[in-house]
Specification:
It contains one helix and six strands, in the order ββαββββ. It is mainly beta.
Length: 113
Amino acid sequence: MSAGSSGGCFASTTFGTPVGDNADISPRWASETFAQPGRRGRQHWVQHMTFEGTADGVTVRSYWKVVQGRASTNTRTLNAMGFYDDFCVKFDGRWLIKEKRIYRCNDETPLPW
């Protein structure tokens, strides 16, 4: 249900195929993401969340953007943007993300609305 237990699914347009059902989901994503050069000064902003109840849990959609500040030029730039679709379930009295899909927007991305 969480990154440290089986049963979850993590899908990102960065990987191309879903990664899931193992404890390596978060460490793999983090190590591949943060291994890229130029990561200092980035902030990940998540906003405009919507929640929709289903028979099995809750579907959450949120929009994100990555902004990077550069001290040398005193500038901020938008590096990436997209949206998440999370499917949450109640497990042992706690809400957990069972499935997370990350979509990075570009000029060819179908709009989610």
